[in-house]
Design brief:
homodimer; alpha+beta; six-stranded antiparallel sheet; three-stranded antiparallel sheet; 26% helix; elongated; DNA-binding
Chain lengths: 227, 227
Amino acid sequence: MSLSGWQAVQDEVLRRIHARDWPPGSAIPNEADLAREFGVARATVNRALQALAEAGLLDRKRKAGTRVALHPVRKATLSIPILRHEIEARGLAYGYRLLTRTHATAPVAVQAALGLTGPLLHLTSLHLAADRPYAHEDRWINTDAVPDILTVDLAVLNANQWLVAHAPFTRGDFVLTALNAGPEAGPLGIAAGAALMVLERTTWDGAVPITWVRLAFAPGHRMHMVL
Amino acid sequence: MSLSGWQAVQDEVLRRIHARDWPPGSAIPNEADLAREFGVARATVNRALQALAEAGLLDRKRKAGTRVALHPVRKATLSIPILRHEIEARGLAYGYRLLTRTHATAPVAVQAALGLTGPLLHLTSLHLAADRPYAHEDRWINTDAVPDILTVDLAVLNANQWLVAHAPFTRGDFVLTALNAGPEAGPLGIAAGAALMVLERTTWDGAVPITWVRLAFAPGHRMHMVL
DNA sequence: CAGGTTATTATGTCTGCACATAATAATACT
DNA sequence: AGTATTATTATGTGCAGACATAATAACCTG
């Protein structure tokens, strides 16, 4: 067989995995052999197999060789767009309303997530889609890390947008969970107790914690992923 | 400067992006120039930049060159392990209980997701962690695609485990949402109305729909992701 | 000057070769 | 027999050179 392009190699390997020519757990031929069989260079086979390994379909180990993953750990990638873009992508007008802005000591959960104990800048705000509440945001900001944010009029400018533009982060950490609506119920204009999808995110710049955010989406919010 | 290894190149590029040497939206030098500057082959620079592009930090276009992404679409990867492994990884005993097994016509939402109208195999079951309800599963299976599943005793063997082992899928589709507990409340042993994290997944083998699952996790479930 | 053609350029990828590295197998030594 | 050392092997990665391809810029031409 003569293939051309590492994508073609990848497709053929996928086909064989799928057709059970190479059942889960079994070892597949080494790169050199495959290169010969497919009529390509070893580097080309390597590219294809590495991509599949990264996708979790193959397990590769030096010397041990390559084998079809027994329990393919499927990785869904959830792209986290800026809310404004997410909303505008649906053809809706985006709106933002700052609800509160204070300096205060954060709840212990937030303190623990950030690894800080001092008082932080605390914002609560509302993201609107076509004038209807879309998500409620509860944010704590480490002003030591981004002192410039104190000079910004956050009533006009979305804190998240300012941060992505001025304080790039190197590390992030997400938790998705579901909660019965508590204090967010009012601003979101919903009944208390409604099930809300909640996203909690902590971001760092290196070792320096920047911000902790909790987004509570309006009921019915669906987060979509593909794999 | 002389670097060695594509990872080192990647790190240096990351550093420059982060240090605002190359601010968002700006074009960075071409591969040949970077290769010369770093004292590596162009292929090495290419490897590094491609990885960063895949991660969403760079936008690359032929001829146009490479520029720092204006709105780095952060991609969180959520690894979807088999529930059994997820539970056992926490050091808890895994349990499985089949609740119902029927053939029936699926709700329109399921019919739409799968693109099928005929009657399907319908299973509801419970996943247990240390004998406590962990998640409620509501599954519809296209028996035309996997007729062998009819020969399996699903009271003993987890349908999901059987499927991953015998019916590899090529495409999947996730939706995460939050719902107030309805019929799941009973089996999960919780109060009706509690906020549940719900994961709906549809899987295909090529163009053939295989199964639709809805997992409702016990209250307090946290789905963790890193980016 | 508009519209189409051609050149240029940066990335995408392949090849063949080389050496590095990790894991295993084989061997030697006590 | 048990342990330490040394091959062997498959993947990981690097290099230089080449051509492919897409997007843009420069150039004609009517």
